[in-house]
Model the fold of this input.
Amino acid sequence: MKVDVLNIQGQNTGRQIELPEAIFGIEPSEHAVYLSVKQYLAAQRQGTHKSKERSEISGSTRKLHRQKGTGGSRKGDTNNPLYMGGGRVFGPRPRKYDIKLNKKVKRLARKSALSFKAGVGKILVVEDFSFESPKTKEYLNLLLRLKLMEEKTLLITPELEKEVYLSARNLQKAEVVRASDVNTYQILHAGTLIISESAVSKIEETLA
Done:
């Protein structure tokens, strides 16, 4: 699959680049994508939830009244879950929500996501660029020239471009990620992928 290479002015350079069919042209696996996104979202959960149970409540353990002969129900101490201020029955405890996923499945999911984006024409390839200093205005101008101001975008760079990353950090609909770190959720969450020219070979190397 060949796509045009644009410059940072949003103009066609007259050159084309070949997107590897093994990565950008496969039949997407919906199940692999589902598992990968599920793993990513599960990993975002902190799992630090906790409520006190009966044995952890700080309160008197005195029996409220004798067991029999009162005509009322049997009552233990004030930590009883039935009373206000008592412990909670089977409350949440700290746990991990991590899901194990094979590397091949995660790799297939990323290929599937990239192939889907390529299939619907939501991939742009731009010449390699960098900023002299972090400036949000510069990144906004880039999106404006590419006519992507209203879309969620994901810029994939071959290596960590600190100035570019910092320039996009305050923008709600823009994200910058290194080619070797991009995941399935980020690819699908973005409306359009902007891929640096050198990042294409880096993606191919990562997912080969």
